[in-house]
Write a structure and sequence with these properties.
three-stranded antiparallel beta sheet; four-stranded antiparallel beta sheet; SH3 type barrels; 30% strand; 148 residues
Length: 148
Amino acid sequence: MGGFNYEEMVQEGLRSVVRETLEITALEGLPGAHHFYIAFKTDYPGVQLPEYLRERHPEEMTIVVQHQYWGLEVDENGFFISLSFSESQERIYVPFHALLSFMDPYAKFGLQFVPPPVFELEETPVQKLPSSSDATGNIVSLDTFRKK
């Protein structure tokens, strides 16, 4: 049944381009006239934004990484950055899965993303998970969730 989800693999590969670009920027700063426009879903799980920004941008927003940014930190899943929003500095966190687009106008380079679907998972307390010895066959195939 399975097969390969090439589209998601490609998306992950492209997200790693953004991750690597931001890691280099965090270490060395922006070279020359390079700057980034990064659009993301503000309602995606894991996005950290002040409430007033979330209210102003309930679905998506675009940030500009150019002159006025501080404290860029990149981890495996996303990045922290402090930016100026109408006179106040705010620290935000954007998971890579929340990305909609990444553009470097100076390099005439741009990527488009499709954020992966978010499934409502029931929270299962850790102690209730069965150990391998008494596990029953409660396995759900990912194919159930894939688009046909």
